Amino acid sequence: MSIEAKYPGQGKPAHPELFNLKAMPEQPTELKPGQLPADKIRLFFEKGFLVVEDFFTDTELNPCLTAVEEIVDRVATRIHKAGKLQDLHEDKDVFQRLTYIDKQFPGAAILAHKDGILPDAFQNLWANERLLNLMEQILGPKVCANPIWNVRPKAPDHPDGEIPWHQDSGYFDPASYTSLLPVAWIPLLDVTEENGCLQIIEGGHKTGKVSDHLNCFANTWHVMLDESKMEDTLEISLEKDVRTLPINKGSLILFNNLVPHRSVPNKGKQIRWSLDLRFQRPGEAEGLYGELAPVLLRDRDDPSMTPDWSPYVANRHLQQHQMTAGEEATPLDKLDTTLTGPWMKQWRLVHGNRHTEAAGLVPEGPER
Ligand SMILES: O=C(O)CCC(=O)C(=O)O
Ligand SMILES: [Fe+2]
Q1: Ligand 2 geometric centre to CA of 30 (Å)
Q2: pLDDT digits (tens, 9 = 90+) for 84-97
Q3: Which end of the chain is more exposed for a tag (fewer CB within 10 A), N or C?
Q4: Distance CA 354, CA 201 (A)
Q5: Is 171 helix (H, G, I), strand (E, B) or coil?
Q6: Whose CA is nearest to atom 8 of ligand 1?
Q7: Ligand 1 pocket check for 280: Cβ under 6 Å
Q8: Which three-class secondary structure state does DSSP give residue 87?
Q9: What fold, for 3-355?
Q10: CA distance linking residue 309 with residue 291, whole number of Å
Q11: Can you give the residue ranges of every domain in the chain?
Q12: What percent of the chain lies above the pLDDT cut of 70?
C-alpha cells in the first residue's frame, strides 16, 4: 500500500498560492465598517494570521457568554439527572462552574465542548455585519460559514485543554489543502500567557504543505504535528518564528488552516472560554468529506440574503464519530466523554487512549 493510501493526510501537492499574497482579493477603495486598510489584510496572507484588536463590543460578545452559561447548565443538569453529580454548583460563575462540575464528573468539560448545539448568540456573532465585511477582504464577495466550529472550555491545569502544535488542515480532510478556511478565534475574556493564549508560527503556511501529523496527543483526541519534521517541511524555526498572542476580550485572531498553532497551558484561575468560527468560499471543500454543508452568510450582490442555519442543527461531533467508528458503531450515550473524528484515520496512530479506543482504532507504535 502506498504511504498516501495508508495515511490519507500525507503527500498531497502543495498550493501555496491559495494561501499567500497571491490569494489576496482585490481590496475595496472605500472601507465599510469593520474593514481594515489593505496593508493590514496583506499581513494575513504574508504571516498566515492577523490580530484584530478591539473589534467586538461587550454588547456583541456578552450574549455568547450567556449562551455558554446555558451550555454548562444543560451539561450539569444532564449529569445530575443521571445521578452522577451531587452539587449543581449554580452559585459559581461561567468562568468557574464547569471546573467544579468536572471535578465530580471528569469529562464534563468535554461534554460542553461537544454539546454541538449552535446557539443563536453564536450565529449572530458569526454573521456579524462588520465581521463579514472584514471576511470579504479575505475571501471575496461571497462568504460562507464553514461547519467546523468550536466552543472551548480551556480549564485551569486541565490536561484535556492542552492543544499541541497543529495545522487545522491536520484535522480536516485532505481536500481542505486547497481551500482557504480562515478562522476567527474569539476569546470571551482577556487571554494572556498565563491563562492559555494562542501561539502561532509566523509564515508557517508559506510552503502550502501540511506536514505529517500524529495521533493522538497524550490522553486527548488531539492530533499533533510531528515535531521532528515540521521545521524542515514547513521551512520554519521553532526558535525564531513562534509568536505568542495575548489579546483582550473584544479582540480576535484570524488565521488560515495551514499555519501551525497551539495554545499555552492555562495556569490561571478561570476557564478560558473561546469560540473558533470558520469561514470559506461557496463551492470549495469544507474539510469534512462533504458531510456538512457550508452556510452562505454574505453575498455582496444580494444584500437581502439571510443565512439558512438549518444544516447546523446536526451535532457535528456525533457525525464525526460515525464517520470514524463506522455506521455500525454503537451510538454514543449522552454522558459519553470520548471525542473522535476522521483525523484519527488520516495520520499514523502512535498513541492510543480512550478516545481512539472509542473509534475502534489500535495504535501502530512506536510510542512517543
Ligand atoms: O483554543 C485553543 O486553545 C486552540 C484553538 C485552535 O486550535 C483553533 O481554533 O484552531
Ligand atoms: Fe487549531
Answers
A1: 33
A2: 999 999 999 999 99
A3: N
A4: 30
A5: coil
A6: 276
A7: no
A8: coil
A9: Jelly Rolls (2.60.120)
A10: 15
A11: 3-355
A12: 98
Q: Give CA torsion, residues 59, 64, 69, 73, to 10 deg.
A: 140
As given in the structure block, the three cell numbers for residue 240 are: 525564531
Q: Which residue has the higher pLDDT, 316 or 187?
A: 187
Q: Which residue has the cell 462588520?
A: 130
- Which residue stretches of the chain are H helix? 3-6, 38-47, 58-81, 97-104, 108-113, 120-126, 129-139, 230-234, 316-325, 343-346, 354-358
Q: Mean per-residue pLDDT for 199-217?
A: 98
Ligand 1 within 6 A of 168 CB? yes
Give the per-residue pLDDT at 368: 46
Supply the residue whose CA is at minimum distance from atom 3 of ligand 1. Answer: 263
Q: Which of 126, 146, 152 for mutating ligand 1's site (highest number of atoms within 8 Å of CB)?
A: 152
Taking the C-alpha atoms of residue 89 and residue 39, their distance in angstroms, rounded to an integer, is: 48
Angle between helices 97-104 and 58-81 (to 10 degrees): 20
The confidence score (pLDDT) of residue 367 equals 47
Mutate to test the pocket of ligand 1, among 166, 276, 278, 279 (most ligand atoms within 8 A of CB): 276
- Around Cβ 368, how many Cβ atoms within 10 Å? 12
